[in-house]
Amino acid sequence: MTPLAHIAALPVRAYRLLLSPWVGHGCRFQPTCSAYALEALERHGGLKGSCLAAHRICRCHPWGGHGYDPVPGADPEFDKAR
Predict the structure, then answer these.
(1) Phi and psi (nearest 5°) for 2?
(2) Is 1 contained in some domain?
(3) Residues whose CB is less than 8 angstroms from the CB of residue 16 and which lie 6 or more positions away in sequence, other chains included
(4) Containing domain of residue 37, as a range?
C-alpha cells in the first residue's frame, strides 16, 4: 500500500473499529463498503482507491444497487461480464 493509501485507510479502519459495531451489519453490497474501500486502496493506491471507495459509498443507499460488487481487477470473470 502506498503512503497516501495508508493515510486514506485510517478513517475506514477507525469506522470499522469504533462505529461499525454500533451501526450494525446491514450493508447492501458484498463485500461490505469498508472492506471494498480497504481493498480498493490496497489495489489501486491512494487517489484512485479513494475515488472508487467514494463512488461505492455514494451508491450505498436504499434506492441504490445491491449484491456482489467487487473492486475492479479483483474478479476478472466478473469484470469481463460487465
Answers:
(1) -70, 160
(2) no
(3) 34
(4) 26-81
Residues 72, 66: Cα–Cα separation, whole Å: 16
Residue 4 in domain: no
pTM (2 decimals)?
0.91
Partnered with residue 67 across adjacent β-strands are 29
Distance CA 74, CA 48 (A): 15
Select from 15, 48, 46 the least CA-distant residue to 33. 15
In tens, the pLDDT along 22-76 reads 887 778 899 999 999 999 999 999 999 999 999 999 998 888 889 999 999 988 8
Domains held by the chain: number: 1
